[in-house]
Amino acid sequence: MKKSCRFILNDKEMDLCLSQGRSVLDLLRKDLGLYGTKEGCREGECGACTVILGRFPLVGYRPMPSCLMPAGQISNTHLVTIEGLQGERPNRLQQAFINQGATQCGFCTPGFILSLTGYLLEGRTVTLQDAVDALDGNICRCTGYGSIRQAVAQTVEPLLGKVPSLQGLIELDLLPAYFATIPQRLAKLRGNCLADSPDLTFEGFEKDRLLIAGGTDLYVQQGDTLNKSRPRFLIPESEPIRVKEGMIEIPASASMEQLMRDPHLIDQFPGWREKLIVMASHIIRNRATIGGNLVNASPIADCAVLLLALDAQIQLVSSKGFRRRLPLREFFLGYKELDLNSDELVESLLVTKQDGAQLWNYAKVSKRKRLDIAGCNSAAVFTVNNQALASVGLAFGGVAPIPFTARQTMAWLREKPLTRETFLGSMEVLQEEISPIDDIRGSAEYKRRLACALMADHYLHCFSDTCSYGDFVKGGAL
């Protein structure tokens, strides 16, 4: 079934009747003839199909992979492709790519341009490292990346330490002038067609219709089917993360990027953003949602492992509005099996708000730093009292059929002193508790060794004054 969709495409207001599940990539290339958006991997890994999506007023602009984005989610938005940044001559960023020799075949270049422009539109203080990191989901096979980094540095130099505004980016020749009219035009568009907006709540839930939020896994697995489907939508970042009744409440629709940058979590867990940046590339983190990562039920789901270690609770809501809350560790029943009824959805995750910073760590082993599923991953949270472990949260991915809470190891560690013997002993207990298997990402024996290495990483990060790398080598753990 097709449905009317009104949005602004670059500088043009569009009113189309389209299949809601059709990917934005196919809409742009096959239906609208905008070939600057390239079709590469169709899995969100190459960045060639990157576009910028503007949604007011809550989210603003985000660069995203169009191959994983359903067309039904662009209603009432500003969709920007490389054609929307074109003028009579190259803009400042495009000229920097020319000056630095940062393009050869040119296939990937539009994605790089849009990823960096999208980063500058996100409303954050600009740093050179963040600007470079914003391109971590874009792959180039021609140039090497030195010239691209130089083009980025040349472009952002006048913006370092500042929060760019739309007008400021226009004055720097990084955006065309029409961007200044978009907020007012988009507000008018939303006011005129609110009834056609994508679903923002669970009201009217229909269990026979697929619910899509980020779609970063669904479109990889079921892209052809979804292109012809009639799904319902939750919008990534449609609700803020907030503190309520002593809990940090994380909506299921929260994106990975939203989770990574939340000030409540950053305050509670030092190094939060720096550790979690390995979860995915920037453009994927802007799409992937916490709820989707959990209900996918992968035994190596990054967010699941993290939230298990934080002893999170999960809140579910039924089609009749009934809510129930349970510990997240009880949500995973078996491989791809969840305690989730057919008429229920994940509504939110809740983490206890603590006063002051906590000792914690997150570590992941994968072939590629940010663009790959983990072979093994792990998170740990420690509370110390009188040089002994008062409480421990410990979870692993890739060592069991489900995201795994290491309950026996946690229990063994409680009230143990902070000594080398304690740390090494816990690894022996862990080896008895886990049950990895041989698969494409490594043998069971390899994953057992990785589990010890991740434990050592936790201890070295949190208790560097008590243990050293050499202790684990001498103890036979590494």
Please provide a written account of the structure:
The chain is an alpha+beta fold. Helix content is 32%, strand content 20%. The chain contains 18 helices and 18 strands. The chain has helices at 24-31, 92-99, 109-120, 128-133, 146-156, 166-171, 182-192, 218-226, 256-260, 263-268, 272-276, 282-285, 290-295, 302-309, 407-413, 420-433, 444-462, 469-474, and strands at 2-9, 12-19, 50-55, 60-65, 78-80, 211-212, 232-233, 242-244, 247-251, 313-318, 323-327, 332-334, 337-338, 344-352, 359-365, 376-385, 388-397, 404-405. Strands 2-1-5-3-4 form a 5-stranded mixed β-sheet. Strand 3 and strand 4 (60-65) form a beta hairpin. The longest helix is centred in the last third of the chain and has 19 residues, at 444-462. Mean pLDDT is 91; it is low at 194-202.
Low-confidence parts lasting 5 or more residues at pLDDT below 50? 194-202
Supply Rg.
23 Å
Query: Which descriptor suits the 3D outline?
Result: globular
- Structural class of the helix and strand makeup? alpha+beta
Counted by DSSP, the helix tally is 18
* Lateral arrangement of strands in the main beta sheet: 2-1-5-3-4
- Number-wise, the strands total 18
Sheet with most strands: 5 strands, mixed
β content, as a range?
A: 15-25%
Helix content: 25-40%
What is the overall pLDDT average? 91
**N-to-C CA distance:** 57 Å
